[in-house]
Automatic annotation (TrEMBL):
Main location: membrane
Protein name, as recorded: Transmembrane protein 8A
Record's subcellular location: Cell membrane
Family: Belongs to the TMEM8 family.
Keyword list, A-Z: Cell membrane, Membrane, Transmembrane, Transmembrane helix
Amino acid sequence: MYCLFVTDYFTRTPRKLSAFRSFASVELFHFNVPDDTVVAVWNLITFKEQGGTFGDSCPDRNVTVYFRSGAPPVINPLQTRFPRDTIVPGSFAITLTWTLPNRTTGVFNVTSPLPGDWFLAAHLPKDEGKISVKGLSEECQYLFQPQLIVQRLIGISVLYPGYYIDQMIPDHNRSVLYKVFIPNYISKVRVQLANCSTRNRSTETCPILLKIRARAPPLHNSTSQDCRGGSTCVLQTPLPSWEQWYYILVERSLGNADVYFRIGVQVKDCSKPSASKGASSGMALNMPQSFGAAMPFSLTETLPAAGLPSLSQNGSDRGPTLAPEDTITYLAPASDTNKCWPIRPTLRNELDTFSVHFYIFFGPNISVPPDRAAIFAINLMPVLDSGGVLNLELKLNASSVKGENITVFGCLNHGMPLSLSDNSTIKCESESIGGFMLSVNATSNITKLRILTPQTGTWYLSLRSPVRH
């Protein structure tokens, strides 16, 4: 299957910029980057006006523009110091200088941008504090208009977990792109490429490079695996982000030859704990038994094979020579011995226009079992919850530890929870997921965390008290 490029164009109405005094001085623009976008180009147009005409005599004042995906950028040109328990997410920033007397333009390119919400913020430099008398001259106005041009792919081949298909890269193409959807409760993604050959002849080395990335097509620094070591190649992604598309790029390094291979995706499904574990989890977390099961369905029950070609239940006897037509082999998802722990929902309560409080069901006091993590989900709604501050506070009930040296660790992660399964090492990050750590003990029983303008979507708080031997 061949992909086609489609170009989309988006623009916003020009707005008058102000000198920076506070965040209220900033003009904020919102764009939505479509899925499967390979290039996004922002054209940044700034022009002067004075008295309804071109402001050729207006002084040149640089314009600062900030970019961020997922949430509005944090604007701090005055270098204000935040409290030590505050997380300030990073963003891109560029400065536009004037190339013409009354007009200037700038360009900001992003290759394989993350899809969804993108926010731009723009302002003039800090006011110099000069005093002028109104009415003696027309006021200079600086107007800013961003435009977005995206080039996206249509017709990307979709892989289904557990299904292996025969594919090829013709000699006139350098690569082929696939995508696979990873639902909730998946602990590992495994991309396997086998039966690699050129011109229907098996070769000891496979001239292919595998790359994988969540949410957008891979970049040069994405997770990769060189397959030249043999005809079979495996690329694994532990702890993938949930409810996201993963993009798989198959690049070849050998020219002037068709490359044949079989590719498939296997996942580890941790969504089906035993009934006894589900019941004990519910009791340990002070929850009704109905909240004790992580998920009532396994991945094999949620991914029907309807509409797919006829399946071969056993592809292990296939020789190195591939049939001319595409064939599909199905292998059931592997179950993960480390079962997903129950994830407790939170209740959203909108206190007023600008404040939202998340309540824990059957809380606020909770029990953290010694042998597993207690996990809670906080869902921030797109756009509506953008631009605020996520405040999190943990407090240890010192009377419940009875003089023991107990420490409760917490991880706050976006996209999927980290269950803190290793007692010897407490980490809140993985190769693909960032996170923030908190801890409380009998000596310091309260901790706070503030995240300025957090990304929207689902945040997971994992609490665990490791067993000391």
